[in-house]
Amino acid sequence: MRKLLRKTAGEHGQMLMITLLTMSVVFVIGFIVVDFGFWFSERRGAQKDADLSALAAAQELLPIVTLDDPNATAIQQAANDRAWEYAQLNDVTDPDNVHLPDVSDSSLWTGCWEDEGDTSDTIDSFPLDVEHPARAFFGSIFGFLAPEGLGAHARACVGSVNSLDFVMPTGVPMNNPDYEKWIRDLCWSPDDGDPDNLPEPLYGKQCDLSVYDKVSGEASWMDLDHPDPEDYPPSDLCSEKGGGAKELGDEIAYGGANTVCRVAPMGFDAADCNDDLNWCVRSKTGAQPQTVMKAFEDLFSESSRLFPTGEGACDTTGGDGIDDFDGTFELTSAPGTEGTENAKYKQICDSPRVISLIIVDTFDATGNSLMPIRAFATFFVEACRVGDIDDPKCDPKNFPGQIGHVNLVGRFVEVPGEGGVGYPTDWSPKRIVLDE
């Protein structure tokens, strides 16, 4: 019996040692987990700070200039200043922990869209690295040292919207044989004498966009694919020959065709267009002005399928239930830029009067040939015009006599856009995305 008791007492001592050893291991692991958890949290924080700072800095690149532009250095420095400002707002206060791109290193500021064939020296890139200081709470006791710095890399790219659904079946050419009329109608900037610089819209300036029922030099209706507007997902064909006046009217009344259209790849030649490419479109001939006018009336009215309650939410001045420009957009560029090619806006209210137009090189004389899409443009429709009569509601009954063709009175708007993003173009809405 005594031998049994002595044996049991010895086992109790062994269990105590095992328990103490196990608890020590658990505590060591726990201490290390605390440190690693802290380091992981700091690493995620550094990535967040890098992403936000890069996106903020890229806002300064939105003028989209090339490296040889007289303002390039100032724009780059402004981007660096904005990045440092946002880093400080996120409690990164040591300049040594924010690594900004060197203004003299052009490779850091370009090249976002090289995979799309853009090898230009356009300033479209903003990379930076942000570090968070690291320390060890318990790991150093056991020989685990903190990392020298918990860094994160981010790169923001400035591009243009290159794919859209529900595009309005309306096309505008960049190369316009009736250019002098454009200037007279106050839509486009004056020619600067450089044949490589195509005219840009005077953003925010009211103008008269003549959209004929046949191919013209100023604007034209486009023959887009016309699936059922309620089908999902949208068609990926963009253009299909053969749609009639009813299909055109349905597309306008819905706020655009239920199809996805894309900007052609850089350097794509019109001769290579075919019906299977969703960046090629053709003009529509034989559109009926009466049908077009009624379609715009439906788009703005309570019967609109896109805006079932109709317009009126953006009416801030007239009190007549008609959305106005100032209630829909807000100027974000410097005061005094309104009505120039440098004006920038943000949309502050949803309105059926905001439409997306297709931009092509020039119209084919017959209207039957396919043309590559070069960009998209945002346009705010303020009225329909026939002759010298304007009607904000586009009601055909308010125009006596025969309607020859419809002019759209409104304003081009440079706003941040939604949709796919690709290499920068002068006309398309701009987007900023994180690349890395």
Q: What count of domains describes the coordinates? A: 2
| Oligomerization status of the protein chains | single chain
Low-confidence stretches: 1-5
- Count of individual beta strands: 16
Largest sheet: 8 strands, mixed
Structural class: alpha+beta
Q: With helices defined by DSSP (H or I, 4 residues minimum), what is the helix count?
A: 6
Q: Please give the alpha-carbon distance between the first and last residues.
A: 75 Å
Order of helices and strands: HHEEEEHEEHEEHHEEEEEEEE
Proportion of beta-strand residues: 15-25%
Assign an overall shape.
elongated
On the 0 to 100 scale, the average pLDDT is: 80
Percentage of helical residues?
10-25%
Report the radius of gyration as a whole number of Å: 30 Å
Please sum up the structure shown.
The chain has 436 residues and is of the alpha+beta class.
Keywords for this structure?
436 residues; alpha+beta; 8-stranded mixed sheet; 16 strands
Describe the structure.
- By secondary structure, the chain is an alpha+beta fold.
- The chain has helices spanning 2-58, 72-89, 179-184, 245-254, 289-300, 325-328, and strands at 98-99, 125-132, 150-167, 170-173, 207-211, 220-221, 257-262, 280-281, 329-331, 345-347, 354-360, 371-386, 389-391, 406-413, 420-422, 430-434.
- The strands form 3 sheets. Strands 4, 5, 6, 8, 11, 12, 13 and 14 form an 8-stranded mixed beta sheet that branches. Strands 1, 2, 3, 7, 15 and 16 form a 6-stranded antiparallel beta sheet that branches. It has a two-stranded antiparallel ribbon with strand order 9-10.
- The protein starts with a helix and ends with a strand.
